[in-house]
Amino acid sequence: MLARWIKTPLINTNKINSRLDFVEFCINNKTILMNIRKVLSTIPDLERSVSRILIKKCGPRDVRSVLIALLGFQSINQICQDNITLKNLGINDQRISSLINRLTNAIVENPPLLVREGGFIQKGYDKQLDEYLSLLNNAEYYIRKMQNEYSAMTGIPSL
What we know:
Layout: H1 2-7, H2 13-28, H3 30-40, H4 46-54, H5 60-81, H6 94-106, H7 127-137, H8 139-154
């Protein structure tokens, strides 16, 4: 963003003054600035993660990074909403909250690096996936169960 601002500086006096007012506000309100910096320090490289998702080269950790970034932005948004001067900077968008809820329910807290490692979708998120995972993880049990049922049906004890 800084590079873009340097390449294409503002020419509208009102926008320049508005930006300067914001800078002055941040200088005069160190606590708010410190709180925003603290949140920003926890946010992973969102641009990198989103780029990897868009080119379909992402892993579960990239999706988790998006969630962590959205949670951070939600915290910054709350800081802005709690301050009269910054209130107009805040975003009040239910779609962001909805996406946060969906990702929180879908992705485990510590996902593996690669999709092929599996285990990155939370249990209970998708019933059919849970069923398939149960079959995969308990295959021997289901085979023994089927063997017992077929033995009982056919009367052949050693199937």
